[in-house]
Amino acid sequence: MSSVRKVVLAYSGGLDTSVILKWLQETYGCEVATFTADIGQGEEVEPARAKAQAMGVREIFIEDLRETFARDYVFPMFRANALYEGEYLLGTSIARPLIARRLVEIAAETGADAVAHGATGKGNDQVRFELGAYALDPDIRIIAPWREWDLLSRERLLAYAERYAIPVEAKRGTRSPYSMDANLLHISYEGGPLEDPWNEPEEAMWRWTTAPERAPDTPTELELVFDHGDVTAINGEAMSPAQVLETLNRHGGRNGIGRLDLVENRYVGMKSRGCYETPGGTILLKAHRAMESLTLDREVAHLKDELMPRYASLIYNGYWWSPERALLQRVVDDSQAHVNGRVRVRLYRGTVTVTGRTSDTDSLFDPAAATFEDDAGAYDQRDAAGFIRLNALRLRIAARNARRRS
């Protein structure tokens, strides 16, 4: 333990990481630098500076990474239409590779020989942080206090904080019963009453979204402009990636969009029940698929759908920095060259309905071929007979064999 000279800690300023900070100082006798990322969690991150200073930290890194997060992580993921197990929009998973990258970079900048995180030994985040760190620096040392210490309950954490006069705002009996994680893409809830999958989530739990039955009775209409698969404007106003997510979150939340109650399979082996609010991401996924429906070749679209579950699992399991994810990303990004145009959506009481899509330059929709009216020779319906016979050949042979066997 004495071999660790300096460690960079992913630090939120909350109870867990504040205790971890002091525990690292006491247990390893090392200098601790802190890194706090603003990725749109909706809370002030600057108070973490005062808390770290009060605990003797000299090197404090607090960074606004909202645009980086949206541009370099969320938007590439949505180009792939990524859903884990058909439902989860990967809001927590996609934030971890960014944090891991900055931890490793700051360690290099400050001459630290280790990084530390507050993820528990039961969850997915420990895997995501550490796979990312090792992929970026194979020789980095990683300290995971939850796998080393005996402070395995909230009461023990509070007692430790009291012993060392660690400033902690949360008081006994006043905290939320849920373990929550938030960023620009989503907010998640786990633990407490949710540990019984039969328990319905309490309405008071949800923080971002109006209950659909209480949402406005007047629909919200949005027009999204796509450029190479990314939204660049909403209702005629050009926006950065972070602004797009903030705007969609606001409209989606007001209209009761984006709630999810899910039992998922964690990478570490157990099933876990979690609830999520992803209003902007829910709208973005629906609109992006609508844009692709107009501009992607059929086989390209179907191939993307086949690759998507593998891509989503790579992100969920912590392999963002793997060569296979990078390879899939190049394929996905290449497919987006012609995903350009506009999609109109209607938001109403928990639903997102696509009401129109158009592309001036890249639409593959041919009205002359698709029409039910006179197509003026664009499609010879007699050709379908041979097409059907060829595709039916193996079925007819199998049917004849079955008839002979019977």
Map the helices and strands.
Blueprint: E1 6-10, H1 15-28, E2 31-38, H2 47-54, E3 60-64, H3 66-79, H4 96-110, E4 114-116, H5 125-136, E5 141-143, H6 154-163, E6 179-182, E7 187-190, E8 220-227, E9 230-234, E10 237-238, H7 241-254, E11 259-265, E12 271-277, H8 279-295, H9 298-317, H10 323-335, E13 341-348, E14 351-358, H11 367-370, H12 383-405
Parallel strand pairs: 1-2, 1-4, 2-3, 4-5
Antiparallel strand pairs: 6-7, 7-12, 8-9, 8-13, 9-10, 11-12, 13-14
Task: Write a structural description.
The model has no long low-confidence stretch (mean pLDDT about 95). This protein has helices spanning about 15-30, 45-55, 65-80, 95-110, 125-135, 155-165, 240-255, 280-295, 300-315, 325-335, 365-370, 385-405; strands at about 5-10, 30-40, 60-65, 115, 140-145, 180, 185-190, 220-225, 230-235, 235-240, 260-265, 270-275, 340-350, 350-360. About 40% of the residues lie in helices and about 20% in strands. With about 400 residues, it is α/β, with parallel strands linked by helices. Helix 7 crosses helix 8 (about 280-295). It folds into three domains: about 5-65 and about 90-165, 3-Layer(aba) Sandwich (Rossmann fold); about 180-295 and about 340-360, Argininosuccinate synthetase, chain A, domain 2; about 365-405. The strands form three sheets. A five-stranded parallel sheet has the order 3-2-1-4-5, sandwiched between helices. A five-stranded antiparallel sheet has the order 10-9-8-13-14.
